[in-house]
Structure formats: C-alpha cells, structure tokens
C-alpha cells in the first residue's frame, strides 16, 4: 500500500516542538476515519487533512492552542462541511446546466424529440406499405435525395411517372400519418427539381 503524504510527518514528531504537530500525528488515523464519515473519496479526505494541519499550524503561530486534539477535530469538521457544501453547489450547478442541455438539444425539448422520432417511425412504416415501384421512387427521392430526372434514368421510367409515384407516395404517407393522429399544414406534394 502506498504511503500517504501526511504519514511522512510521523518522522517529525520528536524534532518538531509544536504541540499541534505531535497531536496531529498521534490522531492521524482517527482524523482520517472521522473525515471519511463526511467525505466520499480518499483524495478528499487527504486534501482536508492537509488543510487542517496547515490551518492548525498557522493558528498555533498566533497563540497557543489549549486543546489541540479538539481543535484539530473542529477544523476537520468545518473544512469537511465546507468541502461538502462546495461539492453540492457544483453538483447543483452541473445538474442545472445538464437540464438545459439534455432536455433542449438542438432547440427542441425531449418530448418534441421523442414525438418526432415516433412520427418518423410511423412515416417509415407508411413508406414501407407503398407498392414496390412507388416505394423505390419515394425512397430514392426522400432518403437518397435523387432528382426526378436521376430517378427516371435509374429506374428506366418517364419523369412524369416519377412525379405520379411521388404524389401517390406522399398522399399515402400523409393519410397513414393522419390515421395515427398527426396533422399537417398544406404544402405542395412534390417538386420536380
């Protein structure tokens, strides 16, 4: 097991005249356990322990500490509570940011996205129900983006036949979606390119 940085202080106990250092070293294991009750990660515990030791040393330089052990535990508790409060604020801020991002991706709410995906699924079923030649024309136009002329050449049919298949496909898909409860604005059925 790797030695923690504060464990290296144990060698200073005899050399350091301050009472805080000696009491800190003697109670290091207890302080760690105490902090583990407040903090979630070993790294947080070590960070707060280091801050506790530094603050206690700074205080001892200003005036003698009557009860170093109680003082160390009080500093630990206050720093741990502050650390937890800051972590909670960061989490709340993150959740608020996440709320804005995750539920309004691309300017649409999650409900709108789900509804659009459901509508698209119904649209795919509607296209699948078209007669084979009509479905080929429709998919080449709407999925692959071919022009009416390209579809005509590819399938060996007249451009006017492509137009008829597209109109038939759009009407069939619109009617299918209407039966599923979707409403549409009136728009041209097909464009010739």
UniProtKB/TrEMBL annotation:
InterPro entries: RNA_pol_sigma-70-like, RNA_pol_sigma-70_dom, RNA_pol_sigma70_ECF_CS, RNA_pol_sigma70_r2, RNA_pol_sigma70_r4_t2, RNA_pol_sigma_r2, RNA_pol_sigma_r3/r4-like, WH-like_DNA-bd_sf. Residues 26-88 form the RNA polymerase sigma-70 region domain. One of its GO terms (molecular function) is DNA binding. Keywords: DNA-binding, Sigma factor, Transcription, Transcription regulation. One of its GO terms (biological process) is DNA-templated transcription initiation. It comes from the Bacteria. Residues 128-173 form the RNA polymerase sigma factor 70 region 4 type domain. PROSITE patterns: SIGMA70_ECF. PANTHER family: RNA POLYMERASE ECF-TYPE SIGMA FACTO (PTHR43133), RNA POLYMERASE SIGMA FACTOR FECI-RELATED (PTHR43133:SF63). Belongs to the sigma-70 factor family. ECF subfamily. This is RNA polymerase sigma factor. It comes from Elongatibacter sediminis. The lineage of its organism: Bacteria, Pseudomonadati, Pseudomonadota, Gammaproteobacteria, Chromatiales.
């Amino acid at each position: 097991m790797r030695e923690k940085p504060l464990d290296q202080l144990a060698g200073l106990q005899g050399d350091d005249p301050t009472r805080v250092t000696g009491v800190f070293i003697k109670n290091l294991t207890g302080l760690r356990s105490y902090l583990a009750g407040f903090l979630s990660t070993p790294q947080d515990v070590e960070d707060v322990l280091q801050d506790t030791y530094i603050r206690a040393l700074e205080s001892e330089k200003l005036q003698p500490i009557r009860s170093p052990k109680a003082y160390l535990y009080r500093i630990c508790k206050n720093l741990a509570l502050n650390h937890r409060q800051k972590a909670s604020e960061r989490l709340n801020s993150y959740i608020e940011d996440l709320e804005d991002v995750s539920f309004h991706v691309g300017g649409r709410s999650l409900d709108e996205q789900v509804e659009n995906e459901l509508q698209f699924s119904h649209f795919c079923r509607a296209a699948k129900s078209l007669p084979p030649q009509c479905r080929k024309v429709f998919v080449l136009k709407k999925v692959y983006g071919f022009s009416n002329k390209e579809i005509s050449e590819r399938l060996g049919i007249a451009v006017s036949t492509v137009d008829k298949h597209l109109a038939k496909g759009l009407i069939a898909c619109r009617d299918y979606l209407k039966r599923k409860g979707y409403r549409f604005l009136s728009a041209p059925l097909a464009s010739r390119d």
